[in-house]
Specification:
- With about 150 residues, this protein is α+β, with helices and mostly antiparallel strands.
- The protein has three helices and five strands; from the N terminus they run ααβαββββ.
- It has a five-stranded mixed sheet with strand order 1-5-4-3-2.
- Strand 4 and strand 5 form a beta hairpin.
- It is globular.
């Protein structure tokens, strides 16, 4: 009987440790997601270039093949992209987080009236965005199926 009690006590203790670790992880994941969503709105919606210095690490790694690594090249690129563009509310359709990786599925209106489906992926470390990937696809006017892109 004593062995059985020790077994159940160890299971309860392990469960408590796992619950605490999951809560901490979940809390950190929520913080990472909030950081990325806030950055995204400030940069791409509000056209605020200061968001780059505030939210991106100095040694920021860029996987988009049209933009070099670092803050300065991103500032130069978005300055061109934003030329004449008005502030707007970004349309983040879905967001998800797994550990230090945050995923955004964005409906992006282009200046020519078209729509892009964008998946932006960010890695967060110590409260800064340290890495970025993206996939951009034109949203077609018609589809071979009844499932919308958003």
């Amino acid at each position: 009987m004593k062995l059985k009690n020790i077994f159940f006590a160890s299971i309860l203790a392990s469960s408590a440790v796992l619950s605490t670790a999951q809560a901490k992880s979940s809390s950190q994941e929520r913080a990472n997601e909030k950081l990325v969503v806030t950055f995204y709105q400030q940069l791409f919606g509000d056209k605020n270039l200061e968001a780059i210095d505030k939210y991106l690490a100095e040694d920021y790694i860029q996987h988009n093949p049209t933009v070099p690594d670092g803050r300065a090249p991103l500032k130069a690129a978005v300055s061109q992209w934003f030329s004449g563009a008005a502030k707007e509310k970004v349309d983040i359709v879905h967001s998800a987080v797994k550990g230090d990786i945050v995923f955004l599925h964005v409906r992006n209106a282009r200046p020519d009236g078209g729509i892009n489906a964008v998946v932006d992926i960010f890695r967060v470390h110590k409260g800064k965005i340290v890495e970025h990937w993206d996939v951009i696809q034109d949203a077609p006017a018609t589809s071979a199926n009844a499932h919308p892109m958003f």
